[in-house]
């Protein structure tokens, strides 16, 4: 692929629907959720960054730079993306949440191809009738635009996207790869899904 890509794993949420636990560190098939995401994403990108707001030493132990939200607290996924766009050494940033351990092995290749083909600023994964806005590929040149949006009080990902050239990338052939874990019940259900 022509452009270099940084992988950004968002693990900075409050885990409110899981009782306030750090979702990225929850066990899944013998390892933490975030380790699975690292293993899926790392072969596809030039570098990996992790956005986290607690348990920083544990995240650093995975061997990748860890970024915190400059605002402090849990300011949402755009805060993590903003930090990632500011630190990435690549032209593009591929974002994935820490709670989707079954990412496609060809995620980055397909997202880059669509972004370049459509001359878009952002590519977003889509399955069935639903877009997955957190699974996105962004140009690092958007950092100033996102900073202005964020400093103006914007927090919703979809609202930010509405001001950009966005293309959706069909992953219907791997729809289950985008399942994420929001509750302990989700985690138990995902444990039963066949490993690919």
Describe the protein's architecture and organization:
The chain is an alpha/beta fold and 196 residues long. It has a single domain (5-191), classed as Spore Coat Polysaccharide Biosynthesis Protein SpsA, Chain A (Alpha-Beta Complex). It has seven helices and nine strands. The strands form two sheets. The chain has a seven-stranded mixed β-sheet with strand order 5-4-1-6-8-7-9, sandwiched between helices. It has a two-stranded antiparallel sheet with strand order 2-3. It is globular, with a radius of gyration of 16 Å.
The main β sheet shows up as:
7 strands, mixed
Structural domains: how many: 1
Q: What kind of oligomer do you see?
A: single chain
Order of helices and strands: EEEHEHEHEHEEHHEH
Shape summary: globular
How many β-strand runs?
9
Helical fraction equals 25-40%
Structural class: alpha/beta
State the CATH architecture.
Alpha-Beta Complex
The CA-CA distance between the termini, in Å, is: 24 Å
The total count of helices amounts to 7
Largest sheet strand order: 5-4-1-6-8-7-9
Beta fraction of the residues? Answer: 15-25%
- Mean pLDDT reading: 88
CATH topology: Spore Coat Polysaccharide Biosynthesis Protein SpsA, Chain A
How is this structure best summarized?
This protein has 196 residues and is α/β, with parallel strands linked by helices.
Task: Using brief descriptors, characterize the structure shown.
single chain; 196 residues; alpha/beta; Spore Coat Polysaccharide Biosynthesis Protein SpsA, Chain A; two-stranded antiparallel ribbon; globular
